[in-house]
Amino acid sequence: MPGGATRVAPFEREASGERLAERESPRRVNDPSAPSIPVTLPTGASSVRRLARALAAFALVGAAATLAGWFLDFSRLTDWDGRGVSQMPNTAISIVVGAVALLVASVEWHRVAAVLGGVVALVGAATLLQHATGLDFGIDRLVVYREWGQLGTTAPGRMGLPGSTSLTLLGLSIAMLAFPRGRGLAVLGGSATIAIALLSLVGLVFGADRLYTIPQLTTIALQTSTMLLALGAAIVCLVPERQPMRTLLEGSAAGLLLRSAWPLLALLTVVLGWLEIRAVQYQLFDPAFGTALLVLLLLGAFTFALWWASDSIAQHERVAHASQRELERLADDLRVADRRKDEFLATLAHELRNPLAPIRTSVELLKRGGASASVAAHAHATIERQVAHLVRLIDDLLDVSRITRDRFELARERVELAGVVRHAVETVAPLVADGGHSLEVALPPEPIVLDADPVRLAQVFANLLSNACRYSERGGRIALSVERDARHVAVTVRDSGIGIRLELLPRIFDMFVQGDRRLERSRGGLGIGLTLVKRLVQMHGGSVEAKSDGPGKGSAFTVRLPLPAGAAAATTAPPPSRAASQGAGAHRVLVVDDNADAAASLALLLELGGHDVRTAADGAEALAIAPAFRPELVLLDLGMPRVSGFEVCRALRAEPWAKGVRIVAVTGLGQAGDRRATADAGFDAHLVKPVDHADVLALLADLPRRNVATA
To answer: Which listed residue, 16, 170, 425, 590, has the most CB atoms within 10 A of its CB?
Structure first.
């Protein structure tokens, strides 16, 4: 079960980074002089280290207050409960040193902590030896001595047997923290110290004076037992990789049981026992009745604690099972996504190879000098169609990538829907004709105005119409209809094609989801067109829905878009189909591109149009050619070695002779941000590769004008 799913103690609620580091990497000490201790820490180790520091700090402050009482001759600071049993100066000094040692150990300066622990153990062992032999080493009154506070002592200023035993164990345990094999012994020593301290504390709480006042055996002050309890607990907390802390911290049912039940049971036992003793002292009932009542209350307390712990464990298991199911679902989703990715890559390879085959064949036909004019025209047309197909594939891939990474921007404007639809229909007209399909377009008589990106909206409708063409048998019927209500307009594309399986409908817009794989391969497509449609429609604030009665029964896709306020106002027409501008005249053109084939082929095309053309393979060569050539138009690639297109543009703009030169960025990047960057750098226009020759002709025809434009 995942441990992180537990609803447990506060020390498990930590920053994920710290928890991950503690789970996955061995912990090593920071002190360069300390022995290397590779320790894998469980979840919550940082929190219990902080708890250990707090316990050590408590003991440090308490012992320092006791020392102040001895030096200031103020007995109340040395005897917290006023029963006459004071904490001796040597005890207070040893506790101060032990607390400092544990604070040092908590930041992993183990060698320093070991030395300080040795000092504590030495003082405790020397006092034990005095108790055992009756000798007096003179250490009991070495620091300060008062006549008061000597109740229960066997010699003036000497700490009792429980205190000296505990300090010996405490000092040895602190020293053992520095050694990997000794850390388990450190826990044992800390636990023994806790047991001795609890023995006297129970006596103090319940009034059993034999447990804390018998000379030579149990004499110990309240603050001494309290501070020893804190230091023993701090040692145990500093070894979270060993029991009992390991089980206490883990996210298992055992750890949850300990965290839930043990504190409650311990507290209830002490409180109920104390109440029973006080009730008997005040004669509220006799000891027999008190004992019987205590047993009943303890049974009830144990039952409640176990029920509470069981409920916590059950909730923990429910959360763990839910987490396990979620992990399994995510794993299934990852497997499906990985399979779709593999299928997509295979389809992509297929789709890229498909147009390359006729292109290569057409090139071979053109290479043969004896080809007739009709054969050459056919080859040219084939190459043009297949290149356009490749461009559409790459554009769709780039669009989906940009949308997925939130790097896509819409160029919104008021646009009439009818113009957008006409543009989409013009785009798919060749597909409709090739398939022998009939296409009916039904538009309302009144104009419908949208706040939209006309190019992207035309792309949405063109993709839907293109899908309808590809997935309809030859001679299929395709219809595009438009309906509107008060707040929305709905554009529906219906076809009589192969339809969609009902189980596929909920996922038809997911990335890489396709219908029949063989049909998909035969008709072309990457499985991203509908994803692109959905994302673009959503960016316009609309929605898209697919419907089909099943295989062979056609399909319908409905795009719903919001109508803007004042939708009946006059609109900006959508971009018309670009036509090549002729009659541009002869001009001097400099083509700069590090792709030699791209530069040479574009130069050759321009030369066939009667223009004087020079080429440069990089920015440095362009800057060397330009002053003598004095080009009127510079077609400038951006990403080049040595000197980039941006640097070339800035350098040309600084030349007096180049003030009237039209500089055009030619790049594979075509987002709105990319266009802004080139305009800010001084470019007059922005063309996206592969460059449409009609755009270049339009630029040549427009040379006399100096307005900044983007193509």
So the answer is: 170
Instruction: Kindly report which listed range (169-183, 254-268, 359-373, 392-406) carries the lowest average pLDDT score.
Output: 392-406
User: Contact at 8 Å (CB) between 65 and 224?
Assistant: no
**Element spanning 128, H or E:** helix 110-133
Which CATH number belongs to the domain containing residue 641 in this structure? 3.40.50.2300
Same domain, yes or no: 604 and 551: no
State the pairing for strand pair 633-637/662-667. Answer: parallel
3-state secondary structure 63-106: HHHHHHHHHCCCHHHCCCCCCCECCCHHHHHHHHHHHHHHHHHH
Are residues 70 and 144 in contact, defined by beta-carbon separation less than 8 angstroms?
A: yes
Residues 308 and 260 sit within 8 Å (Cβ to Cβ): yes
Domain that holds residue 504: 413-562
Name the 3-class secondary structure at 686: strand
- Is residue 612 within 8 Å of 588, Cβ to Cβ? yes
Q: Is the pLDDT of residue 671 over 80?
A: no
Asked whether residue 399 is assigned to any structural domain, the reply reads: no
The residues pairing with 557 across neighbouring beta strands, listed in sequence order, are 493, 546
Contact predicate 696/673, CB 8 Å: no
| Rg, the chain, Cα only | 43
pLDDT interval class at 496 (50, 70, 90): very high
| Cα–Cα dist 129/148, whole Å | 24
Q: Give yes or no: residues 558 and 594 share one domain.
A: no
Structural domains in the chain (count): 3
Query: What is the model's pLDDT at position 35?
Result: 43
In a shared domain, residues 601 and 516: no
Average pLDDT over residues 74-97: 86
Separation CA 153–CA 136 (nearest Å) = 14
How far apart (Å, rounded) are the C-alpha atoms in residues 21 and 1? 20
Tokens of 203: 């006596």
Helix (H, G, I), strand (E, B) or coil at 637: strand
**Alpha helix segments (H runs only) across 143-182:** 161-176
Share the mean pLDDT of the chain.
Answer: 79
